Amino acid sequence: MKDPDRLLAQAYRYCKTIALGHYENFPVGSILVPAHLRKHFFALYGFMRTADDFADLPGRVVTDRLKLLDDWRTKLHAMFAGATPQNPIFLALRDTTCRFHLAQEPFDLLLDAFEFDARGDVAFETYDDLHWYTQRSAEPVGQLVLALFGYRDDDRIGWSNDICSVLQIINFLQDAREDLSAGRVYFPREVYAKFGITTGNEILNSNCAAALVLSECDRIEGMLRRGMPLIDSVKGRFKWELRAVISGAFAMLDKIREMKGETMKARPNLSALEKTALLFRSFIPPRIRGV
User: Fold this and answer.
1) For residue 285, is pLDDT > 80?
2) Backbone φ, ψ for residue 274 (5° rounding)
3) Domain residues for 10?
């Protein structure tokens, strides 16, 4: 039988492989995260990334996707109930949740969002409906990260919620062409109706699509600025990480505006050079843009 410490180390390495194997615009356990926390970032990411992949498995019917997610939730609940995980992701996650006293609720909320996506009927009537979704798909991520750094107060959680919802919506804007082609409409009806668009199916080929995207950029920039007090409320390298994340969000908004909102025609990405520049910029005190 293998040594438990060796198995745990292997489990964390497995999560790291998952995290580093996916493209992200924003740092995931980057060099700005203290070394002693990095593996815990990877454990959280391994759980989320795998569930996200289940929700979007190509060629699988809805029932198959939901079954995989239900099994993932069963494993999560068993882990929190004290069972010894066999899956390496949950083995690492159990260690992380125990060390940092993480609650089960944020993980369940994330799975609620993945199940919503897996069902395929993605549409929202109002901003409040969209917020219901980002409260599950994005905000728990920030809350878990804050807990890793020892922050659990309402003010910081509120600022984090704004930032995380913005990051999620930026991802929607980036992937608009792919999502709309698959019938996933992350623009609320009350918004696109203002541009004379009747149904979500019409957005992709609408002459007003770019204007719709640009209007969302303006709206979420306001949310991003509301969350910026979080930067100065934290200490150490976490402050640098937050600067890098928020700089990445502003950089993506700039890129979308440079392409005049035409994300239905091409997906905006940050190059490796641009992402590296963001990391270096995170060491510089705030200036004109506030990051």
Assistant:
1) no
2) -65, -40
3) 1-102
